Amino acid sequence: MAKLLFLQNLEYEFLGPMYISSILKENGHQCELKIGETLEEFEEAILDFKPDLVGFSIMTGSHEWARKIANKIWQKYKIPNIFGGAHPTFFPEFLKEDGVQMIVKGEGEEAVLEILNRIEIGKNLEGVPNLLIKKTDETISETPLRNLKSDMDFYPFPDRNLYDDLNGRLDRSVRNVITSRGCPFHCTFCFEDAMRDLYKDKGKYVRIRSIDKVIEECLRIKNETDARIIYFADDVFGMSKKWLYEFLPIYKREVGLEFICLVRADIVASDKDYAKNLAAGGCKSVFFGIESGNEDLRNLVLKKQLSNEQIISASKYLHEAGIKFRTYNILGLPGETLEDAFSTLELNIEIEADYPWCSVFSPFPGTELTNYAFENGFLDDQFAYNSLSKSFFLDSTIQMPHIEQLENLQKFFQTVVLFPKSLPLVKKLIKLKPNQLFTWWFGLVYFYVYLKSENRNFWETFRFALRNFKHVLVKQ
After folding, report:
1. So what CATH class is 3-142?
2. Is residue 274 scored above 80 in pLDDT?
């Protein structure tokens, strides 16, 4: 038996560690997860659990915190570390930084299981597929990726007890489930396209779970947790209408919990019964991406392949079905003008978005859009990923003459969509220098929209916001 301890500074349940934990425990190993910020907050768990390995599942933005904590643990306790997630997968140069010892690229369940199996018997880790290791002489050993599992039912259900450290900290009445892995679309701002390229010739990329297994997992959540809502966190829920239309009545009859999900506007618009079927199955709200109101920017640069007409039709069908929706939008895109940004606002107002959401573009490693920004002079050669803010709600690293106005407009985006009469005032305010007052105003409105869109408990979410605002609103 070997032991893995996940460490995390964000109070949120991520499915990646839960899937890894479940496959480890199914094979006789132990896995725990602790939430904290400083080494002192983790020391009790380290001393009690005595892990063989500490693990971090990270996105760009949280990578520096994780690296520093891993380095401190190595210096004090000589416990090796391993990193997975989008940042190390698409920026493997992260392995060269102080304190980082191993990286798992891509899907990690089988790789981490093989690592712990080898640790248990004292076997060298070199040669494990998906693994990059920094040797004592600072050279790097890298292995090819293993083939993707075509049968999604191979994996045990996520370990829902892994995040029990969040009890009392977070409203856990909304639980995440995925019914598929992979995305067939090619949006340039998303890491999914890069992940598909990474797994070229390694098996079918988009894989959908069996209906029976998804229903069984949802029933376990209903019977064993305090869940009120299921969040189907697929990149696109219901890509296969045949699967979806068979699944929904079974889910309604056997599970009966309300659910929220991610969709694409063109899929919703393609069939007026799509939204009606979602509503009949118990869908409370959906989330979909607009990104930009300018069709050329959305489709030629972002490669979203989505028209304004489809967005408008989808919103009409959703309103008619009684389903509220959150829209995802990005300001500060490479080459975006103020006119483009205001067109994004106007489109959200036109479709009467219930829960508008907007970030500032962040050039994450491995994405085609980041490469586009470099190639077209919106990022210079001196740009480093460590210069990125830990939140994509704060500021931009893109070089454009009007970027500060776009940063400011992002802070008022939700306000204007919800209260369109505020637009003339906002047009004046964005000409001022970015400031903390604008950021705090954004935080208040964001809290309101988040609370409403996911039907969270007010007081639990308020306490959560007080503890975690620094991850979203405070620049370090």
Report:
1. alpha beta
2. yes
**pLDDT tens for residues 323-371?**
999 999 999 999 999 999 999 999 999 999 999 999 988 888 888 998 9
CATH topology of domain 168-388: TIM Barrel (3.20.20)
β-strands 131-134, 140-142: how paired? antiparallel
Q: Name every residue whose Cβ is closer than 8 Å to that of residue 285 and which is 6 or more positions away in sequence.
A: 260, 323, 324, 325, 326, 354, 355, 453
Structure confidence at residue 386 (pLDDT): 65
Structure tokens at 465: 């916001």
Other beta carbons within 10 angstroms of residue 47's beta carbon come to 9
| Residue 20: other Cβ atoms inside 10 A | 29
Tokens in use for 382?
A: 């001196």
Residue spans of alpha helices (H) in 261-327: 265-269, 272-281, 295-296, 308-321
Q: Where are the beta strands (DSSP E) in 151-268?
A: 174-177, 180-181, 207-208, 229-232, 258-262
Q: Is the separation of the CB atoms in 442 and 393 below 8 Å?
A: yes
Give Dmax (Cα) for the chain. Answer: 68
User: How many CB atoms lie under 10 A from the CB of residue 14?
Assistant: 20
Domain ranges of the chain: 3-142, 168-388
Name the token pair of 468: 């975690």
DSSP three-state, residue 238: coil
pLDDT at 397: 79
Quote the DSSP letter at residue 352: T
Q: Burial-class residue 300 by CB neighbours within 10 Å (0-12, 13-18, 19+).
A: exposed
Q: Residue 391 has what pLDDT?
A: 61
- Among 101, 123, 112, 93, residue whose Cα is nearest residue 6: 112
Question: Would you mind telling me the total number of residues written for the chain in this entry?
Answer: 476
| Sign of the torsion formed by the C-alpha atoms of 277, 282, 284 and 285 | negative
Q: Is 472 exposed, middle or buried (0-12, 13-18, 19+ CB in 10 A)?
A: middle
Residues 6 or more apart in contact with residue 308 via CB below 8 angstroms: 293, 295, 347
Say what the pTM is.
0.91
* Strand residues in 237-347 grouped as ranges (E): 258-262, 283-291, 324-331
